[in-house]
Specification:
The chain has ten helices and eleven strands. By secondary structure, it is of the alpha/beta class. The chain has two domains: 44 residues, no CATH class; 225 residues, 2-enoyl-CoA Hydratase, Chain A, domain 1 (Alpha-Beta Complex). The longest helix has 19 residues. It is globular. The chain starts with 11 loop residues before the first helix and ends with a helix.
Length: 279
Amino acid sequence: MRIFKKPFRYTLARRRKEMPDGLWSKCPSCSHLIFNKILQENLKVCPKCNYHFSLVCWERIELLVDADTFKEFDKDMESLDPLNFAGPKSYKDKLKEDTQDTGLKDAIITGEAKMDKKNIALGVTDSRFIMGSMGSVVGEKITRLIEYAISKKLPVIIVSGSGGGARMYEGLLSLMQMAKTCGALSRLKEARLPFISVLTHPTMAGVMASFAGIGDVIIAEPGALIGFTGPRVIKQTIKQDLPRGFQTSEFNLEHGLLDMVISRKDLKATLSKLLYYLT
């Protein structure tokens, strides 16, 4: 008499238990599950719907510049707490927490690099650090970057992905960075050196209303949220429904705010061509 064993049932619970964490990502736009290795190979762009995931500053630098050419400026510059800001979490605690989480001292990395063998001055914001908001350190590092570019006769590229605007923890010291960065860019223009502004998701508020919005050429990645105030706040204020796609890259391109919308895989080549034309 033969004894038949019960068929092995590979249950969903067991499969979940045996599958390591961090192998898959879910697209926020189309809910498609993407194997992380494929997502990385595709520059963190969803292969199904073309949704552009956010990049951290170091990923962005690796994407844009020639290998091993980036030299960081002012890497030890840190924010102070001029207002002794108090709340459920103090400003000092917030800075310390975000530094530990990101490895950054503030919301921007600046430096000199080569793009297709051409020297550039480059700044990249990082939304992980207090939503990429602009405090005194961000404004000072951008201003110093521009002043360095003027002294060395370099074009400037700044990649913005900052949803926090001016940093409320620093009050007027944060707001004045809007004027300071724009003043530095006006001197760059007088020196007849180009500034290319690259807008990624999200670029909002004081960042968009200052340096990010006044590039000689303004480029955006597809689907990025770009504006001053978020659409929900605007809708609640004016008591009207907003147009379809309001504040997306494509909407802003159609209405003249942007010069072009470029997919991430074509961004470096496009910037390189622009630098060739403008310099």
